Amino acid sequence: MGNSGLGPAFIKEAKVAYQGEEYIDNLRSFYIDYFKPTYFFYNDIRSGTVIQSGETITLFGVNQSADPITESIINDEVVFKFTYESAYGETWVLEPLSTVPARVSETELD
After folding, report:
1. Cross-strand bridge partners of residue 17
2. Residue 100 reports pLDDT greater than 70
3. pLDDT band for position 15 (cuts 50, 70, 90)
4. In this structure, which long-range contacts are made by residues 53-58, counting pairs with CB atoms below 8 Å and at least 24 apart in sequence?
5. Number of Cβ within a 10 Å radius of residue 8
6. What are phi and psi for residue 19, nearest 5 degrees?
7. Could you tell me the pTM of the whole model?
8. Given the DSSP bridges, would you call strands 50-51 and 9-18 parallel, antiparallel or unpaired?
9. Residue extents of the structural domains in the chain
10. Per-residue DSSP letter, 47
11. Is 76 left (phi over 0), alpha (psi -120 to 50) or beta?
12. Would you say 82 and 14 are in contact if contact means Cβ atoms under 8 Å apart?
């Protein structure tokens, strides 16, 4: 996940959904619940995280392919969604399977 904007991106919500469970602003619990620590490394992005302009953050990485959740991620069964605010007060959402964030209006947030 990277910020190619002109200013910092302030994470407002980080959400992951898998097998009917949602983890909001607690990606660490998701990783611990479904991954074996020897198989992966992760970044616990949550509300309040700031991604500077030009910065890229690795959400997670898999060290070995033996972990069954690896197949689930490849098959798009794990869904990540990030909501953030720009330095200009604009709200943006990075939806699953999208590489470009979408601007969100105030009415869409309610």
Report:
1. 22, 79
2. yes
3. very high
4. 53/3, 53/4, 53/5, 53/6, 53/7, 53/8, 54/2, 54/3, 54/4, 55/2, 55/3, 56/1, 56/2, 56/3, 57/1, 57/2, 58/1
5. 15
6. 50, 45
7. 0.75
8. antiparallel
9. 9-109
10. T
11. left
12. yes
What's the chain's length in residues? Answer: 110
Closest among 40, 37, 87, 83 to 59, alpha carbons compared:
40
Q: How far, CA to CA in Å, does 69 sit from each of 2, 23, 41, 91, 98?
A: 24, 16, 13, 31, 21
For residue 13, the cross-strand partners are 83
In contact, 96 and 22? CB cutoff 8 Å: no
Strands, E assignment, 21-65? 21-24, 40-42, 50-51, 60-62
Alpha helices (H) in 5-47, listed in sequence order: 27-34
Write the pLDDT tens digit of every residue in 52-70.
999 988 877 766 655 566 6
Residue 101 φ then ψ, to 5°: -70, 155
